[in-house]
Design goal:
The structure holds two protein chains of two kinds.
Chain A (H helix, E strand, L loop, with lengths): L1 E4 L6 H17 L6 E5 L3 H11 L4 E4 L4 H5 L16 E5 L5 E6 L9 H15 L9
Parallel strand pairs in A: 1-2, 2-3
Antiparallel strand pairs in A: 1-4, 4-5
Chain B lengths: L1 E7 L8 E7 L5 E8 L8 E2 L12 E7 L6 E2 L3 H12 L5 E7 L3 E10 L17 E6 L52
Antiparallel strand pairs in B: 1-3, 1-4, 2-3, 2-9, 5-8, 5-9, 6-8, 7-8
The chains are: A alpha/beta, B mainly beta.
Chain lengths: ~140, ~190
């Protein structure tokens, strides 16, 4: 699973990064891989942003900013929006963190190729039939 | 083990859940559900087991069902496109594709509880086979978790989308999915 925390619909860096993730969703949809994006946007803003992007994965709203504090992901340098620090986790099926990426600076975010490699590593480790079964 | 759904004239005695339905276009009937390894009655289709709840409330349902003898391969691009449209759209209370055999798409069920039928919106599966808008009574339909996306694939040939767990490989018969929980199967 890709667990993606983002600042909000209003951030140009997030818009740019979502355009990258959108290119990956066509692969993820056939690869038993799920995406979840979380922000402090309201549910209505999240739904509109999701529809405008054409994203086909789950967007969650932490409008009440409960989880941003619980997770320690508050971007303290933005006291106007108090958003999430852009962060990406790649999770194993048991929700153990396989990889994490700090996107406070844009280049810290994972490339699609880095995500593919992470998904490959996880799938290879959990699938007893990673190598084609032979009769 | 699969979960089956069928349209019947009367309530079957061996069904695990059933409810009457009414429709604007005709007299209605009964929707009934079973657990089993094979179709309990002619015309029964496999459905995501999380749809079924004997304590479920009444619901408006968009019921898409292929005519007898008609089906599409589940991997047909028109089915994939409809699933993408479901994922891109607003959430509903219940959604499941219908499957017969291991790979044949024969329809879908989309439902919202309560009185507001407009929440059903446009059913993407209605572009594939004829859709009927029906009112289903209490005692059959539960709630399916909103599919996470962007996954469009089935987890095993026997399982209609959006069921989202592979069977536990260490359980001899596979994990029978709990109708109200995710069971012990791996997340993905």
């Amino acid at each position: 699973m890709l667990l993606h925390f983002y600042r909000g619909w209003w951030c140009p860096k997030e818009q740019a990064y979502f355009r990258k993730l959108l290119r990956l969703q066509d692969e993820a949809e056939v690869a038993y891989t799920r995406f979840v994006s979380v922000s402090v946007d309201t549910p209505q803003e999240s739904a509109a942003f999701r529809a405008g992007l054409g994203a086909r994965w789950t967007f969650l709203s932490d409008q009440g900013r409960r989880w941003v504090h619980e997770l320690g992901l508050l971007e303290t340098t933005d006291s106007s929006h108090n958003p999430y620090v852009p962060t990406v986790f790649v999770l194993r099926p048991d929700l153990q963190i396989h990889a994490s990426f700090n996107g406070y600076w844009f280049w810290g975010r994972p490339t699609n190729e880095e995500l593919r490699q992470a998904f490959r590593e996880i799938t290879r480790s959990i699938r007893p039939d990673w190598h084609v079964p032979r009769k | 083990m699969s979960c089956w759904l069928a349209v019947c004239d009367t309530t079957p005695r061996d069904a695990v859940a059933a409810a009457t339905f009414t429709a604007d276009d005709d007299a209605g009937g009964v929707l009934a559900a079973w657990d089993g390894h094979s179709a309990p009655v002619p015309g029964a289709v496999k459905v995501d087991p999380r749809c079924i709840d004997v304590n479920g409330e009444a619901a408006w349902v968009s019921l898409v069902l292929a005519a007898p003898g008609t089906w599409l391969l589940f991997d047909d691009i028109v089915v994939s496109h409809a699933i993408r449209a479901v994922l891109a759209g607003p959430p509903v209370d219940v959604v499941s594709t219908f499957v017969i055999g291991d790979d044949r798409f024969v329809g879908a069920l989309t439902a919202v509880h309560g009185d507001d039928r407009t929440r059903l919106g446009h059913d993407p599966f209605a572009a594939i086979f004829r859709a009927r808008l029906i009112r289903v009574g209490a005692g059959l339909l539960g709630r399916t978790p909103t599919p996470v996306g962007p996954m469009t694939q089935r987890y095993g040939a026997a399982n209609p989308w959006p069921w989202d767990r592979f069977p536990d490989p260490f359980t001899p018969d596979g994990v029978h999915p709990a109708r109200h929980g995710i069971g012990d199967a791996p997340l993905c």
